């Protein structure tokens, strides 16, 4: 790149036009404005001559892709999760990765409650019943669900979103909050969230509602499988707003079918957008298509933060929200 040339950026998915316009003030931009579905090979072909990319959680950044894209310096994910990044390959290849934390915290926590309430109080089941014309009269136990207020909320994964859910549960619904996390929070943060640290097994045995908000990694794969579901109360509910793969969906479908647990609310799935057929067959699960951060103001803030990262990086100011510290990439493009 000469001093006069603008860096070339690929925007991998359709995003807000105003963000593309902003990027175009700084970069030569190729944007997938029609939101075409690209195979990994097509994605690589579009990225081959680019210096940077704005991606979503759907684009996999791995060694094979980096080998095909020698100019690439930075990939800015419009997502707080970045399990679509092979960080070892990016480190080795000298490619900076960034994510979009903070701006989606409260919105995603809100959705955790939307799913928790819908699941515990059988909202979508009730709507299906009504739409099917089955509602003939009131009865004392019609679609009776689980209490939310005053119950015990168990949160696995206590980062920003987990803490927001803890505050909402404790202050909004008078819930007793217990949590499990890789590391225990500082006492003042625990006090602010009114949350008590417990082991995973104790959490699963004790909680009335379990909410998963931990990042996906090989270590968190199937954090909830058949053995964990077996520990839960038969009246308990499970909510996953984290990532597919954290729950063994086949085991969960079986636990819901046999009423080993009462119900589940799922926004994310193993192999999404495919959904395990067993989950589609049971009534006691609320299913949503990965929309926990989906409000337009939040999605705009996520896209702007990804753009901020690209702009800051190429201006030499360093990325705002880096997720790795790559070694400098040798200039192979002359
Ligand atoms: C995104 C998410 O919508 O931020 C995340 O990690 O899961 C969602 O908010 C999705 O990843 C698309 O980028």
TrEMBL record:
SUPFAM superfamilies: Formate/glycerate dehydrogenase catalytic domain-like, NAD(P)-binding Rossmann-fold domains. Gene3D superfamilies: NAD(P)-binding Rossmann-like Domain (3.40.50.720). Residues 113-292 form the D-isomer specific 2-hydroxyacid dehydrogenase NAD-binding domain. One of its GO terms (molecular function) is NAD binding. It comes from the Bacteria. It holds the Pfam family 2-Hacid_dh_C. Signal peptide: none annotated. GO terms for cellular component: cytosol. Keywords: NAD, Oxidoreductase. Residues 9-324 form the D-isomer specific 2-hydroxyacid dehydrogenase catalytic domain. InterPro entries: D-isomer_2-hydroxyacid_DH, D-isomer_2_OHA_DH_cat_dom, D-isomer_DH_CS1, D-isomer_DH_NAD-bd, NAD(P)-bd_dom_sf. CDD domains: GDH. Belongs to the D-isomer specific 2-hydroxyacid dehydrogenase family. This is Gluconate 2-dehydrogenase.
